Amino acid sequence: MVSVSVSPKPAITIVMALVLFFIFIYESKSSDEISPLFVADKNNNKVNLSVYYESLCQPCATFIIKNLYEIFNTNLISIVNLQLVPYANSHVNLTNNSISCQNGQDECILNSLESCAMNLWSDVGKYYGLIYCFEFLAIEGRSNKWQDCFDQLGLPLSSILNCSRGNGTELAKKYIKETTKLNPPHSFLPWVVINNQPIAQDYANFTYFVCKAYKGIAVPDACNPIR
């Protein structure tokens, strides 16, 4: 179980607010009101994009807020099954059933909150918006102010806290086990895998690999210069 406390909240910057607004525009569109901008591939041709990371890993946070969020901005999300896998460098202590994270207890807390958001919410825009907010604060060295994200985004804090304090350890084990299945094993973070193939040091160019892997006809604009 992860111990989580609540403290005073800072303000979120205008730049991050604008990015989160765009992500939530995507999340808020129901299936019967999707505009042409958000038409998704419905023929099971989506590309599996998996990102293995730790919440306080600086290269991971940079990738999430500066690169990966572009899948919403360019509509690449319409052809992608996005899987985020935290705890990628964490371990289970079999003696006391606790979780040890690469960057300490603060990272375990954020990992737990992020895994609970993904477990409780099915909308990728909803949980990605929260994760984006957490990682933005991590880049600024204010990761302990994570609770501000719930207020600014109007998201329910209590359900995430209940999950973290209750099912958090089991979710951590799930993601740690998922990471051990990597073949080849990851050698750094973030570790980006597309259709079970790692792209290693070229992870910032994931859009190129997604577009090349996509076999459908609902091609988003982001892929037009590539295909």
UniProtKB/TrEMBL annotation:
<keyword id="KW-1133">Transmembrane helix</keyword>
<keyword id="KW-0472">Membrane</keyword>
<dbReference type="Pfam" id="PF03227">
    <property type="entry name" value="GILT"/>
</dbReference>
<dbReference type="InterPro" id="IPR004911">
    <property type="entry name" value="Interferon-induced_GILT"/>
</dbReference>
<protein>
    <submittedName>
        <fullName>Gamma-interferon-responsive lysosomal thiol protein-like</fullName>
    </submittedName>
</protein>
<comment type="similarity">
    <text>Belongs to the GILT family.</text>
</comment>
<keyword id="KW-0325">Glycoprotein</keyword>
<keyword id="KW-0812">Transmembrane</keyword>
<feature type="transmembrane region" description="Helical">
    <location>
        <begin position="6"/>
        <end position="26"/>
    </location>
</feature>
<dbReference type="GO" id="GO:0016671">
    <property type="term" value="F:oxidoreductase activity, acting on a sulfur group of donors, disulfide as acceptor"/>
</dbReference>
